[in-house]
Fold this protein.
Amino acid sequence: MATEKKAFVLRIQPETLKELERWAQEDFRSVNGQIEYLLNDALRKRKKQSQPTANDEPAPQSDT
């Protein structure tokens, strides 16, 4: 089953777009595919950082 993708307008500096075009070409992706890849990667990393690990201790509670 294919998921429906939401289209939206992105305003971007011309220099940034040129760099994205070069990067996408190096990775054999379209610019849209490259942006989607980068966003998904950033979201994956953010989720990993926000998950507590077994070594994390809860903050001490104040009795004041």
Q: What stands out?
A: The chain is about 50% helix and 0% strand. The chain has a mean pLDDT of 88. The two ends are 55 Å apart (CA to CA).
